[in-house]
Amino acid sequence: MSANGSATLVGHPALRDHWYVVAEGADVTDAPLAVTLLGDPYVLWRSPAGEVVAAPDRCPHREAPLSEGYVRGGDLVCKYHGWAFGDGGRCVLVPSSGEGRPVPPAAHLPVVHVEERYGLVWLCPGTPAARIPHMAAEDDPTYRRINSGVEVWRTSATRMTDNFLDISHFPFVHTGTFGIEANVLVPHLDLEQLDDDFYGYQYEVDVGNTVGVVASGLDAPVVHRRMSTGFNLPFTVRSTIHYEHGLDHLILLCATPIDDVTSYFTFVVWRNDDFSVPADEVITFDRAIGAEDKAMLELVPGVLPLEQTATVSVQSDRASVEWRRRLAALLT
Ligand code: FES
Ligand SMILES: [Fe+2]
């Protein structure tokens, strides 16, 4: 419970039944990886079958953190007494008992749901209540996927999602990238189901292009974009950008609560460009945009209250208001 008596965000049991990005697949190689999700520590490793396994970061023997151990031939080995865990978290060796001796049934790790999708590792600590949002571009060979890496932001996943759904901060926060004064006025936003997995709005906008020439593929001071922005509960946002010359730039923004006020952030880009520009150059612009949001959000303390009356919203906040309404309903 927090100081004012309300439950913490990450303590809500309903949040456990959703998928969260905790790493990139490329981060899970030949060593155990420690991550924290909804306040709980987990260990990830790649088993003999090449699958990522995720389990609470606690050895069933004497509770040593398994992430302090090592991986041997795909088995996760505990640093304390050398118990080893293989595919599906099964305990395959208790050295003190000798090879081939049966292990106690409770020695197997209580693994949690894990999926590798879009180059990301998704965890669901409970029972999945919904699928990982579908990105059709992943299966379309005219698109390439670019992963950004996973960062830690000192802010709540609620503030991040609210920010990703909000276009009214662009001229104020994104002054070093694409924000321009002409965009201060936000047009009326009609909310709609954008597809099976995302709910939000579509709009057209002119944005500054001085820094984003590589991202837009255009050499003009201002470029026109047709965009959509939508959410997938609890904390995933998709932004789609369509330029008039046919280029699509799709961004999946993932916020994962480490705890109430710390979060993982990663984004994934899909683009139907000619693949000639190096991936890193393409997302330099998006990284710079993310850094502007991070700097702003880390100034704002605490969790964004889900009670609508706790903060003042205006018409440009319609998507965020609807997201908060649905998130509050999911948590009750
Ligand atoms: S605590 Fe892990 S093997 Fe003993
Ligand atoms: Fe932003």
Question: What do you see in this structure?
Answer:
The chain is an alpha+beta fold. The chain folds into 2 domains: 19-124, Rieske Iron-sulfur Protein; 136-331, Naphthalene 1,2-dioxygenase Alpha Subunit, Chain A, domain 1, CATH 3.90.380.10. The protein has helices spanning 157-164, 170-173, 213-216, 279-297, 318-331; strands at 20-24, 33-37, 40-46, 52-56, 70-72, 75-77, 84-85, 91-93, 113-117, 120-124, 144-147, 151-153, 191-193, 199-208, 222-232, 236-243, 248-259, 262-271. Strand 2 (33-37) and strand 3 form a beta hairpin. 39% of the residues are buried. Fe (ii) ion is lined by residues 163, 169, 173-174, 293.
Features of the shown structure:
single chain, 332 residues, Naphthalene 1,2-dioxygenase Alpha Subunit, Chain A, domain 1, four-stranded antiparallel β-sheet, 18 strands, 15% helix, binds FE2/S2 (inorganic) cluster, binds fe (ii) ion
CATH architect. name of the largest domain = Alpha-Beta Complex
Largest sheet: 8 strands, antiparallel
Unreliable spans are 1-5
Distance between the termini: 16 Å
Helix fraction, binned, reads: 10-25%
CATH superfamily of the largest domain: Naphthalene 1,2-dioxygenase Alpha Subunit, Chain A, domain 1
What's the number of structural domains? Answer: 2
Tell me the overall shape: globular
How many β-strand stretches? 18
Q: Tell me the CATH topology of the largest domain.
A: Naphthalene 1,2-dioxygenase Alpha Subunit, Chain A, domain 1
In CATH's first tier, which class of the largest domain applies?
A: Alpha Beta
Cα Rg: 22 Å
Residue fraction in strands: 25-35%
Mean pLDDT value: 94
**Hetero compounds:** FE2/S2 (inorganic) cluster, fe (ii) ion
List SSEs in N-to-C order. EEEEEEEEEEEEHHEEHEEEEHH
Figure out the total of helices. 5
Structural class: alpha+beta
